[in-house]
Amino acid sequence: MPEVLVEARDLVVRFRQSAGLKKSIIRPVNAVSFTIDRGEILGIVGESGSGKTTLGRTLVGMVQAARGSLQLEGRDVTRLRGKGLSQHWSQVQMIFQDVYNSLNPVYTIEQQLLFPIQRHRSPEALDADQELDRLLRMTGLTPVGTVRQKRPHELSGGQRQRVAAVRALACRPELLIADEPVSMLDVSLRAEVLQLLLKLREELGLTLVYITHDLPTAVYICDRILVMYGGRIVEISGARDVVNKAEHPYTQRLAASATFESAPAASASYGGDHMKSVLLESHRGCPYVLQCPLSMDICRKEAPVFTHVGPNHDVACHAVANARQEEQAL
What we know:
Layout: E1 4-19, E2 22-37, E3 41-45, H1 52-60, E4 67-72, E5 75-76, H2 82-89, E6 92-95, H3 99-102, H4 109-120, H5 128-138, H6 144-148, H7 157-169, E7 175-179, H8 187-204, E8 207-212, H9 215-221, E9 224-229, E10 232-238, H10 239-244, H11 249-257, H12 273-279, H13 297-301, E11 306-310, E12 313-316, H14 318-329
Parallel strand pairs: 3-8, 3-9, 6-7, 7-8
Antiparallel strand pairs: 1-2, 1-4, 4-5, 9-10, 10-12, 11-12
């Protein structure tokens, strides 16, 4: 049996927002439950506003859940502060989407990477300079001496993404969260970065969370995929099943819009004003009800629960649940 590294139960994240004199509360993460097995790559897929990045930031501790629980190796890490949060960051790290702005343009790569290595390494670890050289070589940032003295603007987009990976790996985390790591790269560089993530999983035994709106790259790299819409998980399955056996109407729409290639390009996104309304705390029912061709009265009143439709495959859809009940009754 796989070892569970992370377990989330009914996570809810609430934000207050204002539009003029009007104030409201939104839930970008709403009653979300899932597990992450040690050593796997879990994809979180969804369009802009679906809640995937907020969920990633909740996992790393940058955002705190209003309700629910989050466990890492059986320890509750839902609402960490101070020293506890600092210790959590030594185990969970994040690669941000906008890598250029997450690096300091004033300092050299050496200056920016030595600090986290020195801060987090144990007394018996390698010398900080040796450790930095090792990580640079592992991520393909060579010649090491030249790269160390450069500043972020002197590197290509792919090189900056690798620097971000080295910074995240400096404290030797168990869980690495990559938020849209290839969305700002040229097509020619995307497969290169994806191969790097696979290499890091293989050589370091990392567990990875890969956040993206791009379904083809998720299928390419992930073991399982969690599909989000309107702050909720609508489908969880093996990576290939998201395309070949998609059950939820939203997942089917994503799969139909995607173009699959050996070095995949980005797929379409469906962001719009309807997403704002379904994120409101006052919203009831299925988050996809305004867009769904299969919507029924119950979809407007009650949020669907998961229906098990196959091995490691669960769908939150009233129509799918009704179809399964009818099949079982025959």
